[in-house]
Design a protein that fits this description.
Elements lengths: L1 H12 L8 H4 L20 E3 L5 E3 H14 E4 L4 E4 L26
Antiparallel strand pairs: 1-2, 3-4
GO molecular function: DNA binding
InterPro entries: Cas12f1-like_TNB
Keywords: DNA-binding
Length: 108
């Protein structure tokens, strides 16, 4: 239900909702700089990679998800594609009128 609502709201706003497959992506274990898997315990709050990347774990994970959304790779063809917003024509315009209810509460 939440994904449907988020998809609807993203479409209404003229943008794209990207759902990352976290089991495949492993954002808390992956380095956002070199894309290597760097195993760490949950208690380790800093991401430290051999490539020299040192970031707070949550910030590194957010960067991994952002990069995953930014550059999608079709593993069957090897073609990369960038996400782009939906065209303005594809977005349903919002209503400019607001209906006022005709019923009112009466004091008893």
């Amino acid at each position: 239900m939440a994904h449907q609502m988020l998809t609807y709201k993203a479409h209404e706003a003229g943008t794209v909702l990207h759902l990352s497959d976290t089991r495949r992506l492993k954002p808390s274990q992956r380095c956002s700089a070199c894309w290597a898997i760097v195993p760490k315990l949950l208690s380790e709050r800093m991401h430290r990679c051999a490539c020299g990347c040192v970031l707070p774990r949550d910030q590194n994970s957010a960067r991994v998800v952002l990069l995953d959304a930014w550059i999608l790779q079709d593993t069957r063809t090897g073609v990369t594609a960038r996400l782009k917003p939906l065209s303005a024509q594809a977005v349903k315009p919002k209503s400019t009128t607001r209906e006022i209810p005709t019923t009112t509460a009466h004091a008893v």
